[in-house]
Design brief:
single chain, Immunoglobulin-like, 3-stranded antiparallel beta sheet, mainly beta, 4-stranded antiparallel beta sheet
């Protein structure tokens, strides 16, 4: 994951927007599945262990753009929802013929889920989603100018 500094040199107001648990799940997904020379079959995934698609979050003018790579995913299976300031992108990618004798299998199948905390005040009407060539793009209008998390000073006591 690459986090770049803003061109104007200011503090990134979306620092921390990537859900740490989703990112750890994505990393763990990439490291599991191959045990030496033996392929470990993937187990069906549930809500708590869904894989997380690779995601870019950027600011364009006054909007936040969220792009998720979802190759091989039917757009009809993708669900984008907003609840209590959290944008959830969920769905599933069907497994190909797993009866083949795979030597290496790195692609993940089954349910996926990505939770992204949005700036305060975002409403459902501010969000628009589109799917093209295996990439889901979610635009959150008017949110790029939001301030980031407030830093709280910690006072040392003797």
């Amino acid at each position: 994951m690459v986090i770049r500094r803003r061109k104007d040199g200011g503090r990134n107001p979306f620092r921390g927007v990537v859900d740490a648990v989703s990112e750890m799940n994505r990393i763990a997904d990439r490291m599991t599945g191959v045990d030496g020379a033996t392929i470990t079959p993937q187990q069906p995934r549930g809500h708590s262990d869904a894989w997380s698609p690779i995601t870019d979050i950027l600011a364009r003018n006054s909007d936040i753009l969220i792009r998720c790579e979802l190759p091989g995913v039917d757009p009809e299976t993708v669900d984008v929802s907003l609840s209590r300031g959290t944008l959830t992108i969920a769905g599933s990618r069907d497994a190909e013929d797993l009866s083949e004798d795979y030597l290496v299998q790195e692609r993940t199948y089954g349910q996926f889920r990505r939770d992204i905390t949005l700036p305060e005040g975002v409403q459902e009407d501010d969000i628009e989603a589109s799917f093209r060539e295996g990439v889901l793009e979610v635009a959150v209008r008017g949110s790029a100018g939001s301030t980031g998390p407030a830093r709280i000073a910690v006072r040392a006591e003797d």
